[in-house]
Amino acid sequence: MPKESRIAVKLAYDGSKFYGYQRQPRKRTVEGTLIDALVGLDAVGSAKGARLQSSSRTDRGVSAICNVVSFTTDFPLKALCSAVNSQTEDLWTYSAVRAPEDFNPRWARRRWYRYYLRKSKSAQDIGLMRTLAERFEGTHDFSGFSRKDDRDPIRTIDSVEVSDAGQFIVIDFKAESYLWNMVRRIVWMIDAGSVGSIDEECIGPEAARRPRRSGLAPAEFLLLMDVECGVEFPTDVKAAASVRKVFEDRLQRYQFEQEFSHHLLSVLCR
Question: Looking at 224, 247, 265, which one is the last position of a domain?
Answer without folding.
Answer: 224
